[in-house]
Amino acid sequence: MKKICLFLLILLCFTTTGFAEIQNQESQKPWKYCEEIRGFADTKTESMLTALNNDNYTDFSRDFNQQMRESIPVNKFGEMTAIIKSKFGKYISMEFVGIEIRENYITVVYKGKFSQGQDSVLIRSIFTQDNGKIVVAGFWLTPLTAAGNTEAGK
């Protein structure tokens, strides 16, 4: 009886150690997803913001899905960039804030710095897949104060 108890105790120790290792490996997976998402999101968002600075619709819309192309056609781009530049100024930099993963899309949020004004700007880029390619399905710039942040410039 003692041998059986000892055997079960040893078996339990090895099993617990094995489960702990599996759990540790599983807990690392979300961070890999974050790195993968940031790998494309940071680049595409930075490219769009730089294209806004340069008034370059081709670069701005390079990764748009069809719905985004229809929402922001080339003939509306000049008007849109003028509004953005008058409200925020030119894009300077962005700082990663977070990722929200939904069933059909991913939202990546940044805090942006622009040349005009002290307040930071909330930058949201929405990504989805279209025929296996990652495309931009949404893009918003909002003053952090308008987004409900009372400490926007801090």
Description:
With 154 residues, the protein is of the alpha+beta class. It has one domain: Nuclear Transport Factor 2, Chain: A (Roll). Helix content is 49%, strand content 27%. It is built from four helices and four strands; from the N terminus they run ααααββββ. It has helices spanning 2-53, 57-60, 66-71, 74-87, and strands spanning 91-101, 106-114, 121-130, 133-143. A four-stranded antiparallel beta sheet has the order 1-2-3-4. A hairpin with a 4-residue loop joins strand 1 and strand 2. It is globular, with a radius of gyration of 23 Å. It starts with a helix and ends in an 11-residue tail after the last strand.
